[in-house]
Specification:
Distance between the termini: 60 Å
Radius of gyration: 20 Å
Bound molecules: glycyl-L-alpha-amino-epsilon-pimelyl-D-alanine
Number of helices: 13
């Protein structure tokens, strides 16, 4: 019998919690992966206050690692705190703006997953049914289920690895292209599959391309309509859109700057592109405020039934650190202070994004650096999570170029923190 990697966990607090909750029987090749960890919510009195100095230090570290600008917005019981550093437009030297729109990359997967799970909720789709039941003949293996897609356990190769093997030529070759979903699936199917269905987590954009196909098949409408009707409108996400294959980011926005593979080569302005290579796997545009509203509303149960939210947040590990997990189109990170946050990361040319919320939806953070293909900048940006949710102080206070961004009247927090002075 094939065994899932989640059976080889190191012993840790989460695993002990999982054992207390009881592990499901060993998975067969096609069985849905058993959730192996449980969620813990700290008592209100133990919740650390966000350390905005730490957030700024993380943003500056992203800049020190090649990002032209960066920003983060924290929403919590004590209000909203925003920080921006650097520029949103290098040519105009326009400062980063907390209200700027940007490409959120794979945070789009969480939006797609919400739509998918609403369809399950409505009885139009079964998570453990073969994808081929709904899209006859699409996949070469009837054992691949809808849940396998949403958990990245289908074994369908990620066509973007080959597409972007050479970063800038790869990008320029697709920046204005319009792909059909079928064409993207065909690119994946031309490659060997990576695992047997259900056996192992292997992140692949192909999974969420097929999720997009399922949404369009079952609703009879473009995915844009489903996002709009089911998420953007009800949550009043006015800075959020899905405009594929339009290449522009409308309104106030951050420009994206792609790092070429060759060290020292000039950054490539990658703002305008169709993102057709990603579509339902990564083509949503949003803002920090909207992302916080989205992750928080999701966790508060405003988008899904309790049963579907439980399904979405039932996670298995993505690596051996025992701190990183994946549910259904949703990541869970276990932070150093024990706080668990749910959300997604995104990488699309020129933009690194983090959008996470606590399980109770009371605290959320989104962060952007307007660069990509530069892992150190992404790692540095991830430091905003520890600062925001664990109150972590920066190791050393670097030269900060931050200022507190004004929030619009509707965003005004119950209690404003004082502007940073540098
Ligand atoms: C695609 C490559 C990354 C981006 C990707 N993004 O799969 C999805 C996600 C939507 O997870 C590009 N890297 C970069 C390269 C590497 O070209 N050779 O870093 O912008 O968000």
């Amino acid at each position: 019998m094939l065994r899932s990697p989640h059976r080889r966990l190191a012993v840790g607090a989460t695993v002990i919690a999982a054992l207390a909750g009881g592990l499901a029987p060993a998975a067969t090749a096609t069985a849905a992966p058993a959730p192996v960890t449980t969620t813990t919510t700290p008592a209100a009195s133990t919740v650390p206050a966000p350390n905005m100095e730490g957030v700024v230090a993380a943003l500056n570290a992203a800049m020190a690692n090649g990002a032209p600008g960066a920003m983060a917005r924290f929403s919590g019981p004590d209000g909203v705190r925003s920080r921006t550093v650097g520029v949103r437009d290098r040519e105009a030297q326009a400062p980063m703006d907390i209200h700027a729109r940007f490409r959120i990359g794979s945070v789009s997967k969480t939006f797609s997953s919400v739509v998918l799970l609403q369809l399950v909720q409505e009885g139009r789709l079964e998570l453990d049914a073969p994808v081929n039941r709904y899209l006859p003949g699409l996949l070469p293996d009837d054992r691949i289920t809808v849940r396998h897609l949403a958990t990245h356990r289908s074994g369908l190769a990620d066509y973007t690895d080959a597409m972007f093997e050479k970063t800038v030529p790869g990008f320029e070759a697709v920046r204005n292209r319009v792909f059909s979903y079928q064409e993207l699936v065909d690119l994946s199917l031309a490659e060997p599959r990576t695992t047997e269905p259900g056996v192992a987590y292997k992140y692949s954009n192909t999974n969420f391309v097929v999720v997009g196909m399922l949404i369009e098949k079952l609703t009879g409408r473009p995915v844009a309509d489903a996002y709009e009707r089911r998420i953007f409108k009800p949550l009043k996400l006015r800075g959020t859109s899905y405009v594929h294959p339009d290449t522009r980011v409308k309104g106030l926005h951050a420009r994206g700057y792609l790092h070429p593979d060759e060290a020292g080569a000039p950054l490539v302005d990658s703002t305008e592109q169709t993102v057709s290579w990603a579509q339902s796997a990564g083509a949503v545009i949003s803002t920090p405020a909207d992302l916080n509203t989205f992750t928080s509303a999701l966790m508060r149960g405003r988008l899904l039934s309790p049963a579907m939210l439980d399904a979405m947040t039932a996670v298995t590990p993505t690596d051996t650190t025992n701190t990183r997990f994946y549910g259904l189109g949703l990541r869970r990170y276990d932070l150093s202070c024990g706080t668990q946050v749910f959300g997604h990361t995104g990488t699309v040319q020129g933009f690194y994004t983090y959008a996470f919320s606590t399980r109770d939806g009371r605290r959320s953070l989104s962060a952007l650096a307007n660069t990509s293909n530069h892992g150190a900048a992404n790692t540095a940006l991830g430091g905003t999570l520890e600062a925001a949710f664990c109150g972590k102080k920066p190791a050393a206070a670097p030269t900060a170029r931050a200022f507190t961004a004004p929030d619009s009247a509707t965003d005004l927090p119950a209690e404003r923190d004082l502007p940073e002075r540098h």
